[in-house]
Design goal:
- The protein is mostly helical and about 230 residues long.
- Helices cover about 70% and strands about 5% of the residues.
- The longest helix has about 40 residues.
- The chain is elongated, with a radius of gyration of 21 Å.
Length: about 230
């Protein structure tokens, strides 16, 4: 049967890395969430001051529900922090807030990878929802052309995931630099905060690896890579 295709074994490295990365980010965040910054500043205060320091007074800092639901919304020019992060003065929370501020700076400066990622959002959304449907229907009905369209659609998802990597790492790099030069964290606190951001970045690496492995699998299943006996 199609759903028991042996090519599923290709996904095992990605599944293992994804599980480990998710556990790593959770444990690292929890560890440094218990470590308070010497400055005593909260994540929301740090984000506001960092944005003002760079002249982004029009970017709002908002409180949103959810655990680690922190993000920057370029359309609304809003930096949104989860309840766990917003009021906390921990190294983990301040690092997360600064990371999201890094995305605001990318948006303001027209950082090319961020612009490319934004343009790929509709492509990735379509690929996520339609690629498997097109592939399965194409295989069932014996329409290889439709199956190939499904593979092409999924490749848009993978491209989005790959472009996300430099965007996330750049935001973290900006965050650490701003936190140290701005005096929000001491030189001794920076490495600890970096561990939180590196752990978070690893989840994007895992997602990209899983996407690439899944794409290779779909290429094999569709017959576009090697030969497959149905």
């Amino acid at each position: 049967m199609f759903f028991w295709d042996p090519t599923f074994i290709l996904l095992i490295p990605g599944i293992i890395l994804a599980a480990w990365a998710q556990r790593k980010v959770s444990s690292t965040f929890d560890k440094y969430y218990r470590v308070r910054s010497l400055s005593g500043i909260t994540a929301a205060q740090a984000a506001r001051r960092i944005l003002n320091q760079k002249g982004l007074d029009d970017v709002t800092v908002e409180l949103v529900p959810g655990r680690l639901s922190d993000h920057y919304d370029p359309r609304a020019k809003a930096l949104r922090l989860s309840e766990q992060v917003y009021h906390s003065n921990s190294l983990a929370a301040i690092g997360v807030a600064a990371h999201e501020a890094g995305h605001a700076f990318q948006h303001d400066e027209g950082y090319v990878p961020l612009s490319i990622r934004a343009s790929l959002v509709p492509v990735a959304q379509f690929g996520s929802s339609a690629s498997w449907i097109l592939l399965i229907v194409g295989l069932i009905l014996g329409w290889p052309g439709l199956a190939r369209i499904g593979v092409y659609a999924f490749s848009g998802v993978v491209l989005f995931q790959l472009v996300t990597l430099p965007v996330e790492y750049n935001a973290s790099s900006r965050a650490l630099g701003l936190l140290e030069t701005g005096g929000y964290l001491t030189r001794e606190e920076i490495p600890q905060t970096k561990k939180v951001l590196d752990a978070a970045a690893l989840t994007y690496v895992a997602a990209a690896l899983m996407g690439v492995l899944q794409l290779v699998r779909l290429l094999i299943i569709s017959g576009m890579l090697g030969n497959r006996d149905d």
